[in-house]
Amino acid sequence: MGTNVNQSAPPFPPLPLSSKARRTAEQPISFLITTALHNPGLINLAAGLVDPLTLPVEECADITRQIFADPARGRAALQYDTTSGLRDLRRELLAHLARLEGVDASSLGFTAEQIVLTTGSQQALYLVGDALVDPGDIVIAGNPSYFVYTGTLASLGAEVLPVPMDQDGMDVEAVATLLARLDREGKLGRVKLIYCTSYFDNPTGLTLSLERRRRLVEIVRRYSAHHRILILEDAAYRELRYDGPALPSMKAMDPENLYTIISHTFSKPFAPGLKLGYTAMPDDLLHAVLQQKGNHDFGSANLTQHIALQALRDGSYDRHVDVLVHSYRAKRDAILAAMDRYMPKADGLTWTHPHGGLYVWLTLPERVDTSRQGPMFQSCIAHGVMYVPGDYCFQPDESGKIPRNHLRLSFGQVDPSQIVPGIERLAAVIKEQLSPASEQSSPAPEGRKNLAHGASRGKTAEATTSPGGA
Fold it and tell me: What average pLDDT does the segment 231-242 reach?
């Protein structure tokens, strides 16, 4: 008699993935990209990509010709460099950061030796988390927040604790309250990072006010009596400022270079294809990050570093930033004007007025479900327009609830000619969702305070909010 074979058994044994791999969920962006590819007529207001028509093709062509016209320089660009990155570029970036702060480089509190070049700023964010966070450690972030990084933190095993956002950005007094509570509960030692996109936040477009920047640094100093808590300041959109004041970074408020990390990128103000970021951080963290980066790649692509260096030196970087600011300001104005014109008047329907960056955050009445599984998202796809569901950007509150009445719009990649029709299509779906028939058939989603309940109708130096139809 032969051995009985279970016909339903798998043909091979299961693969024992690591606990980290099992913690790593699919990023929502994968679904959104797939949806866009399968709907070629879609007006994509979801993609947080840069405008392809403004990419510096001619500038980069000229720079690469110059690099390879000199054989010695070309060989250097095609060779390995250090794990920290090209020293001349780090020195140039130190001077660039000083200009952004409006100070002399000697007063920054760090030198070129405390700057690391990475494969995009996302690698820097990952490496900082990897160097600091053990499973069960705590990271504090605004709610809503940049969902790609909160997904990374979840993969690392962090517990991401949210604090509310309002028109002045992250509520830093809520940070202080949370830290005090964790201290009472004996959990303060688990707090490693406070993550904040301080300029023109992704997803809301909001900016952390000057007063809150100073206060957050004070709070971190106060609660770092037994171990240092670090602020991770994500400044990816800093140079895309269209109006409003040029605020100093929190890094500039940390002259000892002990409590803050600031991460910038070439992707948003120049070209994402360079895949190059740069981050300044405390010395002891830098050592740990470089050890991890050595395991990743022992240095980011050297050729793109040489391109970035030449762009900074010959002025093409600054000129390109000016081009982008002009282009994106016009698109920002167009999307806000279209929303003022076409969005229905309704209580609870508001949107942010960003002073920079690429995003507008739209809040709907709590009964409207904007999630991927909800009727509004499906109706928008049918109408030929797509947004990022806002629930992707939230952490659950203490009761486990996530608001489902928000959405993110991006005007970065969309062609200017598609902005008005895109908003018209979106407004038509929103009117449909706000209709009495829809109200009777749709359960009310759970909401939260502050931005989760809709932004205030006031105005600050950093952002304003428009009521629907105003």
Answer: 98
